[in-house]
Amino acid sequence: MIRAGRRRSIAVIGLVAALAGCAAPLNPKLASYDGTTGYRYHNLAADAGGDELFVILAFSGGGTRAAAFSFGVLEGLRAVTYTAPGSSQRRLLDDVDVISSVSGGSFTAAYYALFGEAAFDRFGKAFLYRNIQGELIARALAPWNWPRLASPDFSRIDLAAELYDREVFEGATFHALVERGRRPYVILNATDMTLGARFEFTQDQFDLLCSNLSGVALGRAVTASSAFPILLSPLTLRNYAAEGCGYRQPLWLTNALRPGNPVRRAALVRDLWSYQEHKGDRPFVHLLDGGLSDNIGLRGPYVALSGQDSAWSVYSLVNAGKIRRVLVITANAKTGRDPNWDERRTPPGIVDAIGLVTTGPMGNYSFETVQLIADHFQALARDAQNARDCGALLQRECPNTTLPAVPVAAQFHAVELSFDGVTGDEKLRRCLEGLATSFSLPDAQVTLLRQVARHLLMGSAEFRATMRQIDPGWVPPDAPIDPAVRKEACGL
Amino acid sequence: MSYVVVQFPERREVFIDNQSQGNNVDGAGTPRALLVGEGWHTFQLGGLGNYTPATQTLNVPDATQINPFPVVFALNA
Questions:
Q1: Which residues on A lie below 8 Å from B39 (Cβ)?
Q2: Residues B49-71: tens digit of each pLDDT
Q3: B50: enclosing H helix or E strand
Q4: In which band, very low, low, confident or very high, does the pLDDT at A403 lie, cut at 50, 70 and 90?
Q5: What is the CA radius of gyration of chain B?
Q6: Is B5 helix (H, G, I), strand (E, B) or coil?
Q7: How large is the average pLDDT for residues A308-332?
Q8: Average pLDDT, integer, range A73-92
Q9: How many CB pairs under 8 A join A and B?
Q10: How distant, in Å, are the alpha carbons of A50, A79, A89, A90, A473 from that of A83?
Q11: Residue A479 and residue A456: Cα distance in Å, rounded?
Q12: For the whole model, what pTM was predicted?
């Protein structure tokens, strides 16, 4: 009897392991390339107000801290109303066209893209106030998961993906976003381990893999975006390019691959094209946390903001007269270093050193990316001002002469929200910068982060100036930080 | 970041790398500066095909709004 029982147990374990090994591929093959269908910017309609004000949000990584902070930004935008040209009242949230996100910020972005307005009632319970980290550990330690974890086709990342897919995103795939058919166009960013480059979950990117993004679970994409190295294993995609799907290069890609292009353009396109160029050598693509290549989610928007090499080129939209004003808001939930390190003779320990190694370069790179956007916008504004000045000078000195062309009329604004902006309350700032990077935070800290995000948005000088250019009578709504929440969250 | 001006005797829709950029001139018939990334791009016009060349692939250099890079199409005789 005992032997029979053991044999049955072994058979069950073997069956479970075998089933795990036979799991369907994460990303299905694309039957036939069609550059017009699937999860693409142009397949999502703008709000009835149109594109005139084009709002891009970038959500950084940082676990639940980043998810709560970016959710607070969405709540803030929801509270902002203004009088649009034509005297209609609008919510700024309805003007959000694109959200580009990384890691923790991807939970907020994907959830809002999927559930829209309902996200404001549900996201707290579904994710923010939940001990996701504890649930992940419990699943990893559960004996019934061990056979699956022993399989080469299943690892810790798959456990996380299952949890997010079933419990947070309710099994939805990108097809649900296509069906919804409304902006914002959410770009979830991961990192291709081989290239060390940004990999985005859009059909334009999946075309290169001859894969159909519509069949990919949103939870899986968010998992890839937040697969922090060492803690989670990489998430693996199939690259079907060698099997073919009739893929045809968009013209911008053909041109960007020509020799003689600017170095940055050439490097970006070389990475993209590698999925097709090296298709025989790359049947798989391994993805890690998007923060490794861009922890602020701004690199994708930068490509769209600085040329025609994007399916949603802002240059093309500006030239076509569809956009008059661009507003980029970055929610950067970066933390700070321990300011007391240099007060002690003994050097920081191994935990501090690992923390610096894993997050320090990301933070520095994020700073450079924010500056890149700011510098680009300044250059655009300077060019426009020079053209206006030159036109005025010509009008005065040579009235019969005009500029060779009418200048570009669009305006560009960048707003960065980070804990650095908490300037009047040093203790609060240090508390926020010391919050853990984890998928479980005390409730009070989550609430505090949401309040701080709204507070920073309404207090931002750049944001206020932009809103007053749009609507001279605009007044920011109140966005206080509750002293009781501050005390409970920070012990202050 | 660069700028081009598409020169053609008629008002026409401009395409850069197959993406519409609006018209080459404004409502008053004045040429418009168009934002474009530096490097290789393919230009063509919308509407009737009575112009040459049918498409142009050019390496757009750094240029300003004051002195945009000219992309010239000719009306067929």
A1: 255-256, 258, 260-262, 265, 307
A2: 999 999 999 999 999 999 999 99
A3: none
A4: confident
A5: 12
A6: strand
A7: 95
A8: 90
A9: 112
A10: 14, 13, 5, 6, 8
A11: 8
A12: 0.91
In angstroms, the CA A343 to CA A353 distance is 16
Inter-chain residue contact A406 with B32, CB threshold 8 Å: yes
State the pLDDT confidence band at A181, using cuts at 50, 70 and 90.
Answer: very high
Using a CB-CB cut-off of 8 Å, the residues of chain A touching B33 are: 387, 405-408
Task: Tell me which residue in B39, B65, B66 faces A265 most closely, judged by beta carbons.
Answer: B39
Share of chain A above pLDDT 90, in %: 66
Which residue among B35, B59, B70 sits closest to A315, beta carbon to beta carbon? B35
The answer, for B76 touching chain A at a CB cutoff of 8 Å, is: no
Tell me: the pLDDT tens digits for A353-368?
Answer: 777 776 666 777 778 8
Q: Is the ipTM of this complex over 0.90?
A: yes
Query: Given an 8 Å threshold on Cβ–Cβ distance, is B18 in contact with A404?
Result: no
Nearest CA in chain B to A251: B17
- Helices and strands, counts by H and E, chain B: 0, 9
Residue numbers in B near A265 (CB within 8 A): 37-39
Q: How confident is residue A16, by pLDDT bands cut at 50, 70 and 90?
A: very low
- Joined together, the tokens standing for residue A265 give 């353009």
Query: What confidence score (pLDDT) does residue A50 get?
Result: 59
- A-chain CB neighbours of B5 within 8 Å are 404-405
Between helix A63-79 and helix A104-115 the angle, nearest 10°, is 40
Is A257's pLDDT higher than 70?
Answer: yes
A250 close to B (CB below 8 A): yes
